[in-house]
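Thread amino acids onto this structure.
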């Protein structure tokens, strides 16, 4: 599995993914460069996996013979239908997507997206957490550097298209990470003829990142959530027993 993939991988988590991205940003600053973060939003990525493409990739990575046949059988001849108020729709063949809620589903998706990092070159970076795709461009302060950013993004978008994955450019955000005493050149970054929205803060796997890597926004957001959780536990403790209150406590706080 590609080393830039942190999702559904033993010994790796959102924490390691966050450390990787932040280290890349600091690495750019140490080289007297700025960093452009592009946080891609893929629409229903697990449902868009093309079965024939997945089988070819499995074969490329060395899955052959009976093992490949078993996986091909696992994906084939699946049907779906909808039940509403005792009414049942006709059957419809499922020709795309990996079964969600299964053990194999996440693994098959990781195989499907595994070659994406090879398209990020020239010292730029990428961090994957399953379908969460974050690009990090280390740039010098001149216009040609942004031309390279746009060129690389065009290649990534083409890869998404070839692999039947849908990039939602309107929900894809861009953050210009820079030190307080520097100023970035004002140049647009494009995705499919759409100018990406430039934001000061964005959510990255539970972290609130801002353009100067100050943690004020993250701490404020976390404090509000902790306050709400503490209030909920205080209220529920008066209405129930200790065992139920502990269950509410862990469900509220461990996810923060």
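Threaded sequence (256 positions):
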């Amino acid at each position: 599995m590609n080393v830039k993939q942190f999702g559904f991988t033993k010994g790796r988590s959102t924490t390691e993914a966050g450390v990787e991205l932040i280290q890349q940003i600091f690495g750019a600053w140490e080289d007297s460069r700025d960093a452009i973060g592009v946080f891609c939003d893929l629409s229903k990525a697990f449902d868009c996996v093309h079965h024939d493409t997945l089988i070819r990739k499995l074969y490329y990575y060395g899955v052959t013979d009976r093992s490949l046949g078993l996986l091909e059988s696992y994906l084939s001849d699946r049907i779906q239908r909808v039940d509403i108020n005792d009414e049942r729709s006709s059957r419809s063949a499922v020709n795309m997507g990996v079964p969600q809620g299964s053990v194999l589903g996440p693994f098959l998706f990781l195989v499907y997206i595994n070659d994406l990092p090879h398209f990020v070159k020239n010292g730029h970076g990428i961090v994957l957490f399953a379908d969460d795709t974050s690009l990090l461009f280390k740039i010098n302060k001149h216009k040609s550097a942004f031309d390279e950013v746009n060129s690389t993004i065009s290649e990534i978008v083409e890869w998404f298209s070839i692999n039947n994955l849908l990039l939602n450019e309107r929900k894809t955000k861009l953050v210009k990470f820079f030190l307080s005493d520097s100023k970035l050149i004002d140049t647009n970054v494009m995705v499919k003829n759409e100018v990406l929205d430039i934001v000061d803060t964005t959510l990255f796997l539970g972290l609130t990142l801002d353009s100067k890597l100050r943690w004020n926004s993250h701490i404020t957001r976390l404090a509000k959530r902790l306050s709400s959780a503490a209030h909920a536990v205080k209220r529920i403790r008066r209405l129930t027993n200790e065992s139920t209150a502990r269950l509410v406590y862990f469900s509220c706080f461990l996810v923060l």
